[in-house]
Amino acid sequence: MSHIDPSVAVRAGEELDVQRVDRFMKAAIPGLVGRPHIRQYPGGASNLTYHVEYRGQSFVLRRPPLGKIAKSAHDMLREARVMQALRPAYPYVPDIIAVCDDPDVLGCDFYVMERLPGVILRQDFPDGLTLNTAGTRKLCLSVIDKLVELHRVDPVATGLDRLGKGSGYVQRQIGGWSTRFRHARTDDVGDFETVMAWLQDKMPDDIAQSVIHNDFRFDNVVLHADNPFEVVGVLDWEMATIGDPLMDLGSSLAYWVEAGDERPFQMLRRQPTHREGMLSRADVVAYYLRQSGLRIDCFDFYEIYGLFRLAVIIQQIYFRYYHGQTRDQRFAVFGQAANYLEQRCLRLINASGL
């Protein structure tokens, strides 16, 4: 169908060595025939994701980004292990087909997983997908339900409890993201010191210890090609861990741009949350709390944390562009985006009753 998420030609400078990929794939997956046809998925600004197609068989290959990256970031082997452990309890995780830790293949660790054909909602609805207001709302709720369902997974039963470090998740996140921002700051971006101090001062205790995705967005969700109300896959488990589920929700809502938001925030929109029928951020929080059974008095801390965390992610990517470690022109304006997010955080802090 025309609205199934398409791959595109590989971006210049991000090509894979086809012969090495072919040799690895045929050794790992018996029965492959012919030469692979490799294309790239255009979404995402971090790990690189490729569509590897043989005669009658399709796979997805994930590898880290190019350029200098943080030692603990973009751990492909960890991501694959998390997905393998979680899949029995959360069937929306793609099946891992093969894992490579041999640097002689591509110069990095990578893994190959099953391809889940379906609809991925990026900035706008794809051609061929037409929903009225009620249908859009139904789709929206079905995606939020999958976040609630994830947070109900038993970490001990899946063995994922080993990822956690116990209580103090909120404190570790504020300290960790603050350190990462300071290391990635460039001269043309604000210092975020007021924002970081406020987050440090207003930290709540962890509300729970759950399996969390840490990057749950519409463009990491695969919808059934013939039934967009059915979620068939959840992608991008790089940052999954055990932590506070409300921190996960706050991270997710940092990308939730509404129709009435100011223009600079609209320019950051990566998913169709502006469409009529989509819940507002406040309604998402209220619905999530009803479905999860969690209770809080105020969501301001988590919203501001989510925006700050997004700013750090953007700044880390911009740092690579600023220093010439990537040529991807999408990242040229990321410094401006980080500056905007600082101002947005400051306005929310000034309006907060915390």
Structure description:
With 354 residues, the protein is an alpha+beta fold. It has two domains: 18-114, 2-Layer Sandwich (Phosphorylase Kinase, domain 1), CATH 3.30.200; 133-351, Aminoglycoside phosphotransferase (APH), C-terminal lobe (Aminoglycoside 3'-phosphotransferase, Chain: A, domain 2, Alpha-Beta Complex), CATH 3.90.1200.10. It is 40% helix and 12% strand. It is built from twelve helices and nine strands. The chain has a five-stranded antiparallel β-sheet, with helices on both faces. A hairpin with a 2-residue loop joins strand 2 and strand 3. Helix 4 (133-151) packs across helix 10. The longest helix has 23 residues, at 300-322. The mean pLDDT is 94.
Q: Which H/E pattern describes the elements? A: HEEEHEHEHHHHEEEEHHHHH
**How would you name the CATH homologous superfamily of the largest domain?**
Aminoglycoside phosphotransferase (APH), C-terminal lobe
- Biggest beta sheet attributes: 5 strands, antiparallel
| Count of discrete domains | 2
Provide the CATH architecture of the largest domain: Alpha-Beta Complex
Count, helices: 12
For this entry, give a set of tags.
five-stranded antiparallel sheet, 2 domains, Phosphorylase Kinase, domain 1, Aminoglycoside 3'-phosphotransferase, Chain: A, domain 2, 354 residues, alpha+beta, 12 helices
Give a quick rundown of the structure:
The protein is 40% helix and 12% strand.
